[in-house]
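For the sake of clarity, the format in which proteins appear in this thesis is described at this point. The record quoted next illustrates the convention:

___
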Amino acid sequence: MTTTAAFGWGSSHLTATPAGEADFDPAERLAIHQTLARYAFALDHGDLMALEDVLTEDTIWTASIAGEVEQGAFLGRAAVLSLVRDATETQTEQRRHNLTNVVLQRADADTAMVWAYLMLTSNAGGSAAVIATGFYTFTLQHAEGEWRIAKVFVGLDNAI
């Protein structure tokens, strides 16, 4: 697939995420960042138990490649875990989900909206290379003293 992203193709996904006051205290900010880091590490290592721990039971995961090819929605934690299990069973190289430029926004007292860039790397062929770029929008819910991911949208600028 040779889908090429046009400039600003994902802006409609970002503007659909309501911007609110980002009045998180430092401990909350760190906890949110830790949740995202745990998500990325779980994907990189195929650790479904760790991934399960950072997702809400009713998580929704969707994706788009340059606004042209849609995947999902995958509804519920079990569906997301199945998606990741199927994807990692066929993967032969080590991938790394590098999340950068993390922007936190508050929707309400128990909800965080987060934007982050994705740089997906792979060691296929014996050397590290960027295989995809894109962005995430996350909705996190705070419950029982923890931040968990309730909604994931990943917008890839190119097919993998």
Remarks:
- The chain has a mean pLDDT of 87.
- The chain has four helices and six strands.
- Residues 54 and 148 are 5 Å apart (CA to CA).
